Amino acid sequence: MSHHLLTVDSLNRESVDHLLRVAARMEPIAQRRQVTRVLEGAVLGNLFFEASTRTRVSFNAAFCRLGGSVCDTTGFTFSSMAKGESLYDTSRVMSGYCDAIVMRHPDQGSVAEFAAATNVPVINGGDGPGEHPSQALLDLYTIDKEFQRLGKSLSGAHILLTGDLKYGRTVHSLIKLLSLYDPLRITLVSPPGLEMPSKLIDLVASRGHRIEQRDSLASDFADLDVVYTTRIQKERFTDEMNESFQGLSDDFMVNRDFLDHRCSQSTIVMHPLPRDSRPGANDLNLDLNGDPRLAIFRQTDNGIPMRMAIFATLLNVDKLIEQDLRPVRWYVPSQIGTLDR
Ligand code: NCD
To answer: What is the CA(274)–ligand 1 centre distance, in A?
Structure first.
């Protein structure tokens, strides 16, 4: 694994399995049962030039839970980029202040350009429609944990990716990550014009996976293990697409009816979130709230141990975790959410 995490392309089966194992060891800390200080004195620079809630906050919280501190910058308006500073200069400046940097930026390739100017580890928190490798790692970690609970194996699993597969960077990283594993069955369903880039389809097929494209969810998915839904990324549309796109029709709706009638009792539902809950958006339906198959909040919780594992591995403290554990002393509820099961 390189000293940056910019793309899933820098990972192999061995480095991914290592991160999954380290994340599992982080669970007692992420679940607020134990405390560690292995990153005491270290400073994270969190640079977010695009909207974010969970990625920014969970990277921040993960670094703090390892004992480090965080400096946060949000948006262009309050950064020197608004004064015309280059990515190179910003990168070199930030590297003098911080021991690791997470960056999200609207332009594909920008985080790699930023990383080229520094030897301090840089993590891509999302570069436009490009990649989002830490999200894919926490998604894989979630699939792995859910499958262990259900007594399933990843080998031969059937995974559906649906929604905006063209601009959704989480699915770009996830499909590449999944393709490192034993042959899978991957089905892609997206509205016309928002299909998965063919380069990625070809790559996954060349690695021996069975990949199929369908034009709606109105068919049988009885053997489906995972449905991974994504938001329509309207902010990345061209003017032409904005004019022609009529909104998502019912044919793409993931709701209780779809799950009860087309899938099975053990199909889990994932989404990188945020889901667009405005009327007419037809994103992942709220009628699944409280259904145990809905794994979206277990998925967001998993962002903490996985992001801790990424920091610990890149900063080379992954072997020190167990040496430094102490029990938590403050009040922690036994269930985090009121609908959690
Ligand atoms: C996603 C993103 O920003 O790429 N969110 C996330 O990081 N969990 C998905 C999205 O914005 O739709």
So the answer is: 6
Give the tens place of pLDDT for each residue, 192-226.
999 999 999 999 999 999 999 999 999 999 999 99
User: 13 with 87, same domain?
Assistant: yes
pTM, entire model:
0.97
Asked if the bond preceding 274 is cis, omega within 30° of 0, the reply is: yes
HSE of 203, CA atoms in CB hemisphere, 13 A: 16
Ligand 1 centroid distance, CA of 81 (Å): 23
Domain region containing 82? 8-130+302-327
Type and span of the H or E element at 93:
helix 87-95
Distance (angstroms) between ligand 1 centre and the Cα of 164 equals: 11
* Total domains in the fold of the chain: 2
pLDDT tens track for 112-155: 999 999 999 999 999 999 999 999 999 999 999 999 999 999 99
* Cβ of 170 less than 6 Å from ligand 1: yes
Q: Are residues 115 and 170 in the same domain?
A: no
